[in-house]
Amino acid sequence: MKLTCAFLLLAAITLSEPYCFFFDHEETDDPSVKCKDSSDGSYYAIGDSWRNSQCEDCGCDANFGRCCAAMGRPIAPENCEVKLDLQRCQYTVYRKDDPSIPCHAMTSIGK
């Protein structure tokens, strides 16, 4: 029983975490500027943090760069569609057969 509870807790924690990816430093003329954002090619110094054009929260650490999803992705009913508005960094959920009708998502995966 304890093992089952531990597994369920671990699964819940895993689903609540956003996806992240890490990337290596780039060589530049300025030794403090090491991270290049793959979404728009911008360079950042060690210690910088930013939100990129793909709505990911990024940071440049001493050994590597990293970007993580800035928000959880809603899980929509089967007849609905989820779309990320990159201008507002916000998800919208609407009916597949009529995009003017919003849907209500029950939960989300990620942050």
UniProtKB/TrEMBL annotation:
The keyword Disulfide bond applies. It is found in: Secreted. It comes from the Eukaryota. The keyword Signal applies. Pfam families: PSP94. PANTHER family: BETA-MICROSEMINOPROTEIN. This is Beta-microseminoprotein. The lineage of its organism: Eukaryota, Metazoa, Chordata, Craniata, Vertebrata.
